[in-house]
Amino acid sequence: MIRARVLILPKRTVFDPQGEAVRHALGHFGLAAAERVRVGKEIEIEIPGEGDQAKIRSQLETIARDFLANPVVEEFELHIEGLP
């Protein structure tokens, strides 16, 4: 079984109002030292582990880049478990 996790966050150059609201709220919990907070989403994909592993990795990267993340305002990190 292959498990892919795609972490999608706003680009550092894009204003993140949700992250800014969380950063501000952290001060009320005694963590006023937080300099930056970004709020994103994580998507987990599980697929069978059979098949061409290079092709699977390439497909997952394409899906993350072209379908899950908005390349104009977001960046992504792809973490794959179960592939060498």
Model description:
By secondary structure, the protein is an alpha+beta fold. Helices cover 33% and strands 29% of the residues. The chain has a domain at 2-14 and 40-81: 2-Layer Sandwich (Mth169, Chain: A). It has helices spanning 17-28, 53-68; strands spanning 2-10, 41-47, 74-81. The two termini are 12 Å apart. The mean pLDDT is 93. GO terms for molecular function: ATP binding; phosphoribosylformylglycinamidine synthase activity.
Low-confidence stretches: none
Mean pLDDT equals 93
Strand order of the largest sheet: 2-1-3
The percentage helix is 25-40%
Please tell me what the overall shape is: elongated
Describe what is shown at a glance:
This protein has 84 residues and is an alpha+beta fold. Helices cover 33% and strands 29% of the residues.
SSE layout:
Layout: E1 2-10, H1 17-28, E2 41-47, H2 53-68, E3 74-81
Antiparallel strand pairs: 1-2, 1-3
Spell out the key features of this protein.
84 residues; alpha+beta; 33% helix; 29% strand
